[in-house]
């Protein structure tokens, strides 16, 4: 079995043990499927391979754990979704993904949950939503695309950023952190465009 | 692996951002090793994900109406109490099935993430 | 940057796992829930999600 790691339309051959399986103008970048246990180390090694590929080409990361029997099967899989994959590559052309998580401390005087009134619950939720929007909106304005996910944090979002525009984006994050000292902002990346690989519509 | 952190909370620790990784490794391992047990467990996951999706959609809708000012104080109070109870029940259900919040952000293949 | 290198790796792992669990493009391959009955549910879910999301956007009157 082989594992599909990423799709690209760049013709540069990858370093072994990776193999490029061609299908039309697209290539599936594949590696032998390993039966090793899923650990932080194996995940980081896989991620390092993807990011090294990303340095030299635009790519769509493939959903983790996608395996096919052989190269012929990989070529068929790519051919079946050619149109969407080509559109996906255009969507992420020249861009990478940055992650943002924002943590808000629990207010020291927060009433215990059982004692809260329903109104307090709704208003607290509304306040949180507004606070998240105040952080997300300026950053979304700097991004080609963005997505917000429900999460335990105040805000968890992904931004698709032009490769050359990473620094100004990170600078804006640092600025927002200074503007909101009570919150904790964490920005990580650059990541391959995992959150923008599928058609958002 | 080079450092992925680009900007972090200066002068504060990163603990709030490190999660208890219970369940995440399992979810990825299931992705790689399809087995009958995981199909069964997957069904519970699927059902709870739908319930959670509806809960979040309803809550968002209600929040918009609260913001819009079209609800009486009593209505806001009742809505809030209902959603608090739903939230509590969801946590209980998740615990009963041994599922985390991340487990409910279900990979549904071509549909992508639901939540 | 404060925080030990180990802690930074830990938080980055959370972001990585988040992406591995639900990101990336979906192509053919082993899918955990590949029972025919569940496939039908997928289709139903897509319609449900789309219709609810659309209704939300249009803010249909009650």
Would you write up a description of this structure?
The complex is a heterotrimer of chains A (201), B (115) and C (62). Chain A has five helices and nine strands. By secondary structure, chain A is an alpha+beta fold. Chain A has two domains: 91 residues, no CATH class; 102 residues, Alpha-Beta Plaits. In chain A, β7 and β8 form a beta hairpin. Chain A is elongated, with a radius of gyration of 20 Å. The two termini of chain A are 32 Å apart. The relative contact order of chain A is 0.17. The model of chain A has no long low-confidence stretch (mean pLDDT 91). Chain B has a domain of 78 residues. In chain B, α2 packs antiparallel against α3. About 4% of the residues of chain B have low confidence. The relative contact order of chain B is 0.13. With 115 residues, chain B is mainly α. Chain C is built from two helices and no strands. Chain C has one domain. About 32% of the residues of chain C have low confidence. Chain C is mainly alpha-helical and 62 residues long.
Short structural summary:
Chain A is of the alpha+beta class. Chain A contains five helices and nine strands; from the N terminus they run E-E-E-H-E-E-H-H-E-H-E-E-H-E. The longest helix of chain A is centred in the middle third of the chain and has 23 residues, at 118-140.
Structural features:
heterotrimer, A: 201 residues, alpha+beta, Alpha-Beta Plaits, 2 domains, five-stranded antiparallel β-sheet, four-stranded antiparallel β-sheet, 9 strands, 26% strand, elongated, B: 115 residues, mainly alpha, 3 helices
Could you state the oligomeric state of the chains shown?
Answer: heterotrimer
CATH class of the largest domain in chain A: Alpha Beta
Helix proportion range of chain B: 55-70%
Mean pLDDT of chain A: 91
Instruction: Predict the CATH topology of the largest domain in chain A.
Output: Alpha-Beta Plaits
Structural class designation of chain B: mainly alpha
Mean pLDDT of chain B: 74
Which regions of chain A have little confidence, pLDDT < 50, spanning 5+ residues?
none
